[in-house]
């Protein structure tokens, strides 16, 4: 069984995302405070076993963008030829710190 659920905890008014890898094949995303040392293991609820268990926690990394994806092909087709930039390029950065995703 592969399933995902979200747990939100507020600590120090910052947010941080974790991916929890368990022996029960669950991917659990937990958000909690940014300015804390994150333990390598957490006791969280396992939906498969229906009990709390120790789960390993690692930092989440974004995968490389696929060049053949439908959105990429559509964007490249729209960009080709004359006419300049067709989609808006986002330049307004509001936040000074970035949320860390684990």
UniProtKB/TrEMBL annotation:
State the superkingdom: Eukaryota
- Write out the GO cellular component annotations: ribonucleoprotein complex; ribosome
Q: Give the record's GO biological process terms.
A: translation
Q: Does the keyword Magnesium apply?
A: no
Q: Where is the composition biased (Basic residues)?
A: 89-102
Could you tell me the keywords of this UniProt record?
A: Ribonucleoprotein, Ribosomal protein, Signal
Q: Name one GO molecular function term.
A: structural constituent of ribosome
Q: Which residues form the signal peptide?
A: 1-17
Keyword Signal among UniProt keywords: yes
Annotated stretches, region: Disordered: 60-102
Record PANTHER family: 60S RIBOSOMAL PROTEIN L36A/L44
Which family, according to UniProt?
Belongs to the eukaryotic ribosomal protein eL42 family.
This chain's protein is named 60S ribosomal protein L44
Q: From which organism does this entry originate?
A: Schizaphis graminum
From the UniProt record, report the name of the gene that encodes this protein: RpL44
């Amino acid at each position: 069984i592969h399933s995902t659920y979200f747990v939100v905890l507020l600590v120090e008014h910052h947010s941080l995302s974790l991916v929890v890898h368990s022996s029960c094949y669950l991917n659990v995303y937990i958000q909690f405070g940014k300015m804390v040392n994150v333990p390598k293991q957490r006791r969280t609820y396992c939906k498969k076993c229906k009990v709390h268990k120790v789960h390993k926690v690692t930092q989440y990394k974004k995968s490389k963008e696929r060049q053949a994806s439908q959105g990429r092909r559509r964007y490249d087709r729209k960009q080709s030829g004359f006419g300049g930039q067709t989609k808006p390029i986002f330049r307004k950065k509001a936040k000074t710190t970035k949320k860390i995703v684990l």
